[in-house]
Structure formats: C-alpha cells, structure tokens
Amino acid sequence: MALNLQTLRTRSLTAAIYALVMLAGIFTGPWSFFLLFTFIHFGCWYEYQKLLAKIDPGYLQISPLHKYGFQLAGWCMMLFATNDYFHFNALYLHQLGFYIGLTLVFVLPLVEFLFSKELSLKNFGYSAFGLLYISLSWSLMISLRTYNMITDSDRGWVYPALLIFSIWINDTMAYIVGSLIGKTPFSPISPKKTWEGTIGGAILCCLVIGFAGSRLLDVPVKAAFVIAAIAAILGTIGDLLESKFKRMALVKDSGSIMPGHGGFLDRFDSLLLATPFAWIYAWYFLG
User: Model pTM?
Assistant: First the structure.
C-alpha cells in the first residue's frame, strides 16, 4: 500500500496536539487536570450515547432530560471525587457533587417515567452502565490525582501520569512488536492484534515503565511495574471492549474529534478500564 503523505501529516499533527493537551492537563496543576478530564468525560458520553443509538435504535427515544441528566450525574461523581483542595471560597466541589448527585438519583427515574415516550428500563440500564463504564472511571482518575496531594509539594500527578504513559507505551510497543513478528491473531474482535504483539508490548511496557518510573518519577520499582502491568492487561481488555461496541454499532470509529485517530472512546478505551484497577492498587496497597 502506497504511503499517503497527507494522511500521515494529518495523523502526526493530531497526535502532537493530543499529546500536548494531555501533558498540559496533567502537569499544569490539579485544576487543569480536572478540567481536562471533565472535557474527556463529556466527550466519551456523547460518543457512548451515539453508539448506543446505533446498536439499539430504541435508545433514540430517550428524552433530552434523560440524555443530559445522566451526563450531569456522571460529572457529579467526578465532583464528589475531588478533595478539599477544589473549592471556590466556601463552595467545595465534592459537596456540590454530592447534593446535585443526590437530587438526580430521585429526579432521573421520575423523568424517565414522565417524559419518555414509552417507559423503558432497558434504556435506563444502558445509561446506568455508562455511569459505571465512563463516569466511575474518570471519577477514580480524579481521586487518583488527589492521592498524596499535599499543599507544599504536590505529587498527586505522579500515578495518573505513570498510568497514562504506560497505556501509551504499551500501545506503541504492541504495535511495533506485532508489526515485526506478529503472526497469531489475538481476538476476532480486533483482527489486527496478535498474541506476539500483545505479550511483547506488555513485557516491554513493564520494563520501560519500571525503569523510568523509579529513575525519573521517584516511584518504587514494584509500584511502577504493577501499574504498567495493569495498563497492559486491563488496557488491552478495554480496547477489545470498545471494539466490540463499534462492531455492534457497525462503525469504524466512535467519533471524529481527532482526525486520523477517531474519537474520545477510541483514544481512552484502554484507560477507562485500567483506571479503576490502578486506583484500587494505589489506595489500598501503596498506602
């Protein structure tokens, strides 16, 4: 296949902008991190609801209050995951998230009953799954950002950055190894993935992150290795899950926000599934 220079330029420019935005959001400070993942949260929800409508046309019948109410409920979960650092004077975001979220717990079922053209527990269930799949993951990412966050020396960015870099490195290494020696298909859901690429990418990811995390980020080698392993294993499963959704919806990409790379779910599918497990490890095993 001939190399398309225009496509290559588009993909390269998009990747560079994506990387710069992510790095700025991660390293500028807690507020930039929160705003970055707020943007990602709503982008993922937009694409998730579009995919659902293609998978099951009955989902098109949901009311606007249902559609945006669940997105807002998910964002309230993110607000609740913030700590006392995130506030405007006496207004604390985690308190705001709690009270608005509690209101929506009662309002959304009532909205479903009163405004839907027909009462559909199935549609309600689809949206509730979105809270687990998208909003819970990004809420735990915010919580991971507040881990070890102290006033005089903010180190809260370390574990989110380590996880995100692990995802990037695993994807890159898996692609390189798979291109060079990949022969055995990994899953019919994603025919381009191979066992050789998947295993090779995971091993190289753990080695690179284990070394770089300890030397550059002052993270214990064991912690860096475990987070890299979580990213490699759960990230691969997350990628397959989103690929399954797209196959069911009969689409190639979840969206087009990043030309040449797809949409929000295409870019963050691995991170969505890896984040909860990285959070469990950080909060309960790193102390």
Answer: 0.93
